[in-house]
Each structure stands twice: as C-alpha cells, then as structure tokens.
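Form 7-S
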Amino acid sequence: MTVVRAVALAVVTVVATMSEDEKVHRRRQTMSRALSSRALGGAPALGAERFRARGRARHRRRRARVEARNRILFEPHECDAEACALRRDDARAGHIRDVLRAGSGAHVRVGVVNGGKYDGVVEHAEGGNMTVRLVAEEASAEASAYDVDVLLAMPRPKVLKRLWAPLASLGIARIVLVNANKVERYYFDSSALDVGTIRGEILRGLEQAGDTRVPQVGVGLRLPPVVDRVSGVLSSEDPKTNGFEWLLEGQRGWTMDADVLLLAHPGQGRTSVADALADARGKRVLLAIGPEGGWTDYELDLFENAGFKRVGLGSRTFTTDVACISLVSAVRERQQSWLT
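Output:
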C-alpha cells in the first residue's frame, strides 16, 4: 500500500506540475502576442487605429457623390396630369427632405424627362412617402434651340464617363461617337457605353443645368458612313447607316441636319470658332472632335471633302473633355444660343 500510495502521489504531482507549466506557457504566449502587437503598431497603437479609421472615412467620402439637383426630374410614368409620387427611400425624396429642407407646402423646381418644367409644391404623405404637385408650367426652350451636335472620336472610357453629364448640361442635341485610327478597339466594349450608365449620367447633368431634354446618343464603328450621314450624302429617305446604332432617343432619327460643319484639330494657323461662325447666327452647328492624338491625314481629308471646315483653339493640345467643353462653349457664345 505504501508503494502504491507513493506511485499515485508521484503521478498526481507530475500531472499537477505539467498542468501548471502549460498554464504558464499559455500566459507567456498571450503576453508575447500582446507585446508584439504593441511593438508593430508603435506605442500609439490607438493612433494607428485612428489613422486606419481616417483612411476608411476618406474612402467612403470618395465613393459618395454629391448630387446637384437644381431641378428634380421625374420619368413620365412617375407622374400623372397633376402630381408626381416619390417613395421615402428615393434619393430625390432625400434631397428634398435633407438638402432643400422643404416641408409640406414648400415650392421646388421639378421637370418631366423630355417634357415640361414645373413649379412644384411638396405634399407629404403617410409613411414618409412624398407627392409633388405640379402647380405651374414654366417656359421651355423649343427643340430648335438645341442647335449644337457633337461628333466625337471615342475617348478613353473613364474620360467618356466624365463627359456625359457636362455635355448634357450644355444642351447638346446629338452626341455621335465614332471610331478613328487612333482609337483603341476595346473602348467600344467598356461599361462607358452601357445605356443605363449613359442615361443616369445624362440625367445628372440635366438636373444640374435645370433642363429636361435628353440628347440623342449613337455610336458608329465605321467613320465614313457616319460622315456621309451627317454631311447629307445619305438622304433621310435612307434610314440605315452602316455600322451605326442609336443608344438613346433613337426614335427621333436623323431628322435635324446641321447647317455648319466644323472640324476641330490642334495646330497653329487654324480658323477660330468665332471667325468660322461669323455669318452663321441662328444656324445648326456640328462639331467633329478627334481623339487626343488628333485625326489622321486620311480622316482630315475625309471630313474636308464632306464640307467640314477646320477650326482650332490655338497651338495647345487639350484633353478630350477640355476640348469638348471649350469648343461647345465657344460655339454657344458666338451664336448667343445659351439655353434658358
């Protein structure tokens, strides 16, 4: 019995000792991890966490887009003859409620896409839903006032996405994207030509400018047929343009022919926009704007043989977005055709 008790006591002691060692080892591991974490993060581990938090906040701010709604637009199916309805979770309802801080009875500027402009009165309904009553229609520009078209060599996708809203806010009637020698083929496969993306950006530009008319948007994979179409070589009786497709408002077709054809190309000695439009007051203008590398000699000859007149903005070479906005602004100013 004495031997058995001695052996049992030795086993219990060994087990107890091993268990204690394991506990100590685990405590040491935990302390080591904590110290390593503090060492890697520096003494101000809290400061590192704040730095990461600021980075996450900046990322959220970059993703957030501030919408400038100087006129809130509704799709025709959202309105009847007297009012337009908004759900509580609609971004436009949030703009009225949180940005304009307009309560019941407040007046807001609204419009119907491709329709009229109105003075609206806010009426709140139960559950946070909202109704905007159309009380008075404002004067709108006639279709003939949208007298500038743009024929644009397909730019880089990220540039094109930036351009939709500004071109819409400038009141462009027709935007035709075309292929060119210095245009990469994969540009035409990008999401920048997604119809939903295009329309969303255009509506954003219209809300910024307080306008309602959506421009026509089309894309042509071959340049010569498009040049023939816009220059009048193809008559309106021949509706088909080889390699061309309308993306927005195609039902209007090619019903408005340009009176003045301008070809933008960088270089010294070019005619200024003002000189080219000296005797063109009140006429419809088509601007052909090339890729950032410019048109090739073949393309220049193609345009000039079709009746285009070369214009420029001096010796500077601009990016596509800067060139578009500058040239359209120059035409609008010379024609005194800024839309109201």
